[in-house]
Amino acid sequence: MNKKLKIKNNNCLSPPSEWIKNNLPQCNTNLNLLDLACGNGRHSIYAASIGYKVTSIDKNKNKLSNLKKNKLIFPIQFDIESNNNWPFQKKKFDVVIVTNYLYRPIFNNIINSIKLHGKLLYETFTAENYIFGKPNNKNYLLEPQELLKLARNKNLKIINYEEIIITKPKEKAIQRIFAQIK
Question: What is the mean pLDDT of residues 26-55?
Answer without folding.
Answer: 93
